Amino acid sequence: MSNPNTIVIFGPSPDSYYVGHGRLHFVENMSPSFTNHAKTALNISFSRWISVSKTADTWIDYNIATDKFHFNADINQNIQDHFTGANGKVAANFISFPDSEDSSCYFVKGKRKGGWNAVLPDYFIQQLSKMQREVLNFDAGITGMLFGKGKTSICLFETGFQANFDEEEITSEDHPLYKVLLEFSQPNRGWCIEPGSTLCFYDSRFFYLKFKKPGESIIQMRSNLPTHIAAKLEELRELAQKPEEQMALMQQDNGWNQLVMMRINNQMNATSMMVDIMNRGSLNILAAASGGHVVERRY
């Protein structure tokens, strides 16, 4: 039986959201472009992460099966360049947006280890600079950032996470987000936060977080959702338990898994061909330099 994935996206207001589980979803009052994507192309099982801006007009969905980004047509050109690494930009592995009306602000973690870029309000830049100085191997270990309401953010690392709270928003240790992060940040527990997690911009109490230990497959989820969104998610979970829905999800995921394997095999073949071409080039150079003769061997 397939293990259904869950996606929760908070829009700019309580009546704006996306919640998906298994094959099914609810989408309410999101931008027209995202709503169309959700209804026609968003694959919940293979969407590794979805990021939306504060207004939700800018959004990105990364499909791990196809290794492709889906996004709004008028997205900032600098962000588009990060999808492919064009114009000297870092090729993106994860992109997220802060609590800002400026849709040109973002954080990107590159595919290359140690590669990242940030176009953020001054507060976050100062915060990142401070962590660079204080956190051992910061550049090599960072895997992304999540942003919540105001100045709240969470830096994601290969071996854990570090949260910075907006002191005007999160004023007590009884705050739901503070309590959950404290639970999973105990020394030697080794929990990381998955990029498919999300924080809410309009209310710091709301979140949907996925915790996972490096090298393990088990994900523990913690959430605090508005009542109406929690009810929608519970409805989807009940529908996903029906035998016919479980079978449909398994068939769908099997088809997409085959696509993943084809893509991986094609990439491996392309890499093998490149290595072969490079090796032949090296042999030809060696032969020319020594006056010898290269004989191709086939096995």
Q: Could you outline the blueprint of secondary structure elements for this entry?
A:
Layout: E1 6-10, E2 17-21, E3 24-28, H1 32-40, E4 47-52, E5 59-63, E6 68-71, H2 77-84, E7 92-96, E8 106-110, E9 116-119, H3 122-134, H4 138-141, E10 142-147, E11 153-157, E12 160-164, H5 176-184, E13 192-193, E14 198-199, E15 207-212, E16 219-224, H6 227-240, H7 243-290
Antiparallel strand pairs: 1-2, 2-3, 4-5, 5-6, 7-8, 8-9, 10-11, 11-12, 13-15, 14-15, 15-16
Write structural notes for this entry.
- The chain has 299 residues and is of the alpha+beta class.
- It has one domain (6-241).
- Helices cover 35% and strands 25% of the residues.
- It is built from 7 helices and 16 strands.
- The protein has helices at 32-40, 77-84, 122-134, 138-141, 176-184, 227-240, 243-290; strands at 6-10, 17-21, 24-28, 47-52, 59-63, 68-71, 92-96, 106-110, 116-119, 142-147, 153-157, 160-164, 192-193, 198-199, 207-212, 219-224.
- The strands form 5 sheets. Strands 13, 14, 15 and 16 form a 4-stranded antiparallel β-sheet that branches.
- A hairpin with a 4-residue loop joins strand 5 (59-63) and strand 6 (68-71).
- The radius of gyration is 22 Å and the shape is globular.
- It starts with 5 loop residues before the first strand and ends in a 9-residue tail after the last helix.
- Residues 282-299 have low confidence and may be disordered.
